[in-house]
Design goal:
The protein is of the alpha+beta class. The chain contains eight helices and ten strands. It has helices spanning 14-27, 40-47, 51-63, 95-101, 120-126, 166-169, 173-179, 199-205, and strands at 67-70, 74-77, 87-88, 106-117, 133-143, 146-156, 187-196, 212-221, 227-236, 242-243.
Length: 248
């Protein structure tokens, strides 16, 4: 069977382009469950990339459970969806991507964009001065019309002007930042912080006050380590669990 693969293009990192194209082939059934993938030499040649870029993409697909590499036998497709039903913190996914990957319909029931001076914590996270202007986006994200998380994202105003129309942002803030603002997010530094919901969070998430929730506290960076935005995303304990892939 001959499968036509398109040569990848810049400026998106090659390994990410390879990952996305192979993942699309798996989800579309071009690479069927149980099928052995072509050799690394063949894939790298067809994609027009180095074997190093290809291996990075294959490693990510393996970590997420789409493929399995068996020593001396080759690389095989496991399935069109990752084996886990939770989310891995080692992979930088948007909330929208997490929701869609579970087969749910993403939505936003509330979205507010306002101007705020940076407090001490925000200034430290974004590498700016206390009192510097920031644009703050607050959103209640939904999955199948059910509150999924409450997201507060803070940007220096030179990255996101506070006059931006919230409607333009759409569902995926990560996609908007990269495709509309032109800032490619290379990595994020995150912490998972357990806490109890207060009055505001309980109302936003439609849960009783004092319910256990998890806060994903993270700063998103470009490749040169410039912080682009600081997010605090609050999840009810019953909508998602997190896993960490540990390797040696």
């Amino acid at each position: 069977m001959n499968i036509h693969l398109q040569r990848v293009k810049v400026p998106t990192p090659l390994n990410k382009q390879v990952y996305e194209q192979l993942l699309e082939c798996i989800r579309d059934g071009l690479f069927a469950v149980g099928q052995k993938l072509p050799s690394e030499i063949t894939l790298a040649r067809d994609l027009g990339v180095s074997r190093a870029s290809l291996r990075e993409a294959l490693q990510q697909l393996e970590l997420e459970g789409y493929i399995a590499r068996k020593r001396g036998m080759g690389t095989f497709v496991i399935g069109p969806q990752p084996f886990s039903t939770d989310a891995g913190v080692e992979k930088l996914h948007s909330v929208t991507q997490i929701i869609v990957s579970h087969g749910w319909t993403p939505g936003t029931s509330e979205c507010e964009l306002k101007f705020e001076p940076a407090d001490e914590n925000t200034a430290k996270k974004l590498g700016i001065l206390v009192g510097d202007p920031t644009s703050v986006i607050s959103r209640v994200r939904t999955a199948n019309n059910r509150p999924f998380c409450y997201d507060i994202s803070r940007f220096p105003v030179n990255f996101l002007p506070h006059i931006t129309d919230p409607v333009e942002i759409g569902e995926s803030l990560l996609k908007y930042v990269e495709e509309r603002l032109g800032f490619y997010i290379n990595h994020a530094i995150a912490r998972l912080i357990p806490m109890q919901s207060d009055v505001v969070l309980s109302r936003k998430l439609d849960i009783p006050e004092g319910t256990l929730i998890m806060c994903l506290d993270q700063v998103h960076f470009m490749a040169d380590n410039t912080p682009v935005w600081y997010a605090q995303v609050y999840f009810p304990k019953d909508v998602i669990t997190w896993h960490i892939v540990r390797t040696r």
